[in-house]
Design brief:
Elements lengths: L1 H24 L9 E5 L11 E4 L5 E3 L5 E3 L9 E7 L6 E6 L8 E4 L21 H12 L6 E3 L1 H6 L5 H6 L14 E4 L2 E3 L19 E7 L6 H4 L9 E6 L3
Parallel strand pairs: 1-7, 9-12
Antiparallel strand pairs: 1-4, 2-3, 2-5, 5-6, 8-11, 9-10, 11-12
């Protein structure tokens, strides 16, 4: 009996090893997103350790010795992303990159060299040019303080891509129709807005995809800022400030 068991064990060991080798030989599942290469415009050589920052999520990475990096490193996997490329000796470069799941064709970016100057003291501040309505969003967020208003940031909304606006808002208890809440006053990019189609069971939330919006602020009725009170007489649920996505 012991000899038979030993023979069976010897037969099973090669089979187990073959199965393990087959598992390790399986190719890894490819990550979605475009591969981007950063190169010197004069020599066409790859640029190593260039800093890449996703301006939407704030996540950063660096190129490898090959000058390549993958957009899958960033969490904001939607139809596009805005990245900033920095490397000493080259001008900062900001560009829009498409990052569809099937969009894996390598993209080449040639940085522009900057002229070498003697040692000087430089006092420089980067200026990001945003639409006026997005500056309004940033100003209001800074002034919220302890008001308790609910804020949906650009990064948060982009993580909810493909979902509907009403689903995202209701996830934080915003916009539900109740005995004390019948209508919510809507403002789109600073202007009063009336939705053509609203979601049933809500206080008038537009039936829109979340991808249409860059940021949202919700003020309950007792939190409404003074500059909106004269337009919110019918908004017993408060005010919803919606800012469209920056294209």
């Amino acid at each position: 009996m012991s000899t038979g068991v030993a023979l069976i064990g010897m037969m099973l060991v090669p089979a187990a090893r073959a199965s393990a080798q087959a598992d390790t030989a399986r190719p890894a599942r490819p990550k979605p997103g475009r591969i981007v290469g950063i190169f010197d415009p004069v020599t066409s050589a790859p640029i190593d350790s260039a800093e890449i920052t996703d301006l939407i999520s704030g996540v950063s990475t660096r190129t490898r010795a090959s000058g390549l990096f993958g957009m899958a490193a960033f969490q904001s996997q939607h139809d596009s992303s805005v990245i900033r490329i920095r490397k000493v000796g080259f001008a900062d470069t900001t560009l829009l990159v498409m990052v569809g799941k099937a969009d894996t064709v390598p993209m080449q970016v040639f940085l522009r060299r900057v002229a070498s100057l003697p040692a000087v003291d430089v006092d420089e501040k980067e200026t990001i040019h945003l639409p006026g309505y997005m500056r309004d969003f940033e100003d209001r967020v800074q002034k919220l303080g302890k008001s308790g208003a609910t804020v949906f940031t650009p990064a948060e909304l982009r993580q909810a891509t493909t979902r509907r606006l009403a689903d995202v808002l209701r996830g934080k208890g915003v916009g539900m129709s109740t005995a004390r809440c019948h209508n919510i006053a809507l403002f789109l990019n600073g202007h009063q807005y009336h939705a053509l189609d609203s979601v049933v069971g809500t206080a008038g939330i537009p039936d829109d995809p979340i991808d249409n919006y860059e940021a949202i602020i919700y003020y309950r009725a007792e939190q409404v800022p003074p500059d909106f009170r004269h337009d919110t007489r019918d908004g017993d649920c408060g005010v919803l400030l919606m800012y469209t996505r920056v294209r």
